[in-house]
Amino acid sequence: MPILPATFPTRADLIHRISLAPLTNLTTPTPWAPLTDAEWDHIAPFLAAMNCGLSLSRRPGRPPEDTRARLDAIFRAVTLKHPKGGRGCWSQLPEGHGKPDTVSRTYRRWAHADLWARLLVEVACPTAAPVLRRLTYLVCCAYRRAIRLMGTLRAILLARRAGLHSALPGPSCLLPDPDLSEHLWPLVPAILDRVVAEPGWRPPPGALRGLAALHRFAAGRRRLSRWMEPA
């Protein structure tokens, strides 16, 4: 009896997780540009539904005077790159988009309202309108910057399941993979049960080391440098 069931590689999609997904699930970067009328018409209902700055909002306080301009400013900020590599700083936001601190506060408030998660799910939907799917790169940039605000593991899991690895803060092969962990953990008690049931049985040489390596892979690295973030 092998350590890994014969169906495990296929069920866990190991080859894709380890070698293909970090390359094939990336969204092509697109230059920032203000939202078109058609793009705004498709994305505005989600802001209204999530209580993010539009007139339908029931959140206490005064909404931004121009929510469309605020969203444009956020998309501009999250696509900026630092001169030394990695994501740019809010202070790099060009003039004309508002105060960086104000824009960043709105961004964080909308992250806590789950707007970026909602938009990620929408652009990942196969039946999404083409005009909405054109915003996939911008949404991925906004989403990955909010990973910690949304809860790291939860946010990583959603991006993986949506198949948008550009929404992850680094290469997917270096980040936690909760789904793979769920596939691996049942194997440990199964091995222990067999050792107890068959005292003379021992796992094949190297099998436990391989299983431990898969667990480390599923756990991901604790820290990633910002330059590892997708383009």
UniProtKB/TrEMBL annotation:
InterPro entries: IS402-like_dom. Residues 35-119 form the Insertion element IS402-like domain. This is Transposase.
